[in-house]
Design a protein that fits this description.
Structural class: mainly alpha
Order of helices and strands: HHHHHH
Largest sheet: none
Number of helices: 6
Number of domains: 1
Low-confidence stretches: none
Length: 118
Amino acid sequence: MDYINAFWVGGLICALVQILMEKTKMMPGRIMVLLVVLGACISVFGWYEPFQEFAGAGASVPLLGFGNVLMKGVKEAVDEQGLLGLWAGGFKAGAVGTSAALIFGYLASLVFNPKSKD
């Protein structure tokens, strides 16, 4: 049942984002920022943990999950370091995912030969 919940929740998130992209004039970058901020806001209210336990990877893989990770890192850093944790927490929590995306993107660019569109 975990796989089914992850599939339909992740698919629903992606479908809603696709509808948002097609029905509005928002650029994809702004929609991505909206998803990260929405995930952080849901995390602030304490609703993300139960949602993630229900949906599993369907909730943690989309950009909503990245917002949750950033907010969780900020909360922990503020508890440890005080006000300085507002800046350090997000960087520390998101460093692994961001680094992996950059490294794998670079490796993919070495393996695959891009072609220009005609």
